[in-house]
Specification:
Helix content is 38%, strand content 16%. It is globular and about 35 Å long. The protein has a single domain, classed as Alpha-Beta Plaits, CATH 3.30.70. α2 runs antiparallel to α3. The protein is of the alpha+beta class. Strands 2-3-1-4 form a 4-stranded antiparallel beta sheet, with helices on both faces.
């Protein structure tokens, strides 16, 4: 399983890309959207999510910081092709550049790691 993450400044863009993905072969079971203010314990949940996903502590804190003030769309892809399609969609819909020093044209991040159900960042409302 490959986890693809996009962080958005605009909640509407996060919702639009989620709808786009659902209309293009992805299932609601594999897409999570977490918007700023969804959870009362969001600070701890977002930190735990990125710490679980990213081995580099400094980078995990950086991603968590960005995620706390934005909307996070996570796609749990079953293949490299699916992950690339998700990353392309997240980028096309305006995922913010999380690595300003990185020369990569991709703003979303692909991480080859499964996210346990209790760590996933599911929003207050289901994606349908």
């Amino acid at each position: 399983m490959i986890t693809v993450i996009g962080i958005f400044d605009d909640v509407n863009l996060a919702e639009e890309v989620s709808s786009y993905l659902l209309g293009n072969g992805f299932t609601s079971e594999n897409i999570d959207i977490h918007t700023h203010g969804d959870q009362t314990d969001e600070h701890d949940r977002i930190g735990a999510f990125f710490t679980n996903l990213i081995d580099d502590e400094k980078q995990a804190r950086h991603f968590a910081s960005l995620g706390r003030s934005g909307s996070i769309v996570t796609v749990h892809a079953n293949s490299t092709r699916e992950a690339q399609e998700a990353a392309d969609a997240l980028n096309n819909y305006g995922a913010i550049d999380v690595n300003a020093s990185d020369d990569s044209p991709s703003h979303s991040q692909m991480i080859e790691r499964i996210v346990a159900d209790d760590i996933r960042l599911r929003g207050a409302y289901p994606i349908s």
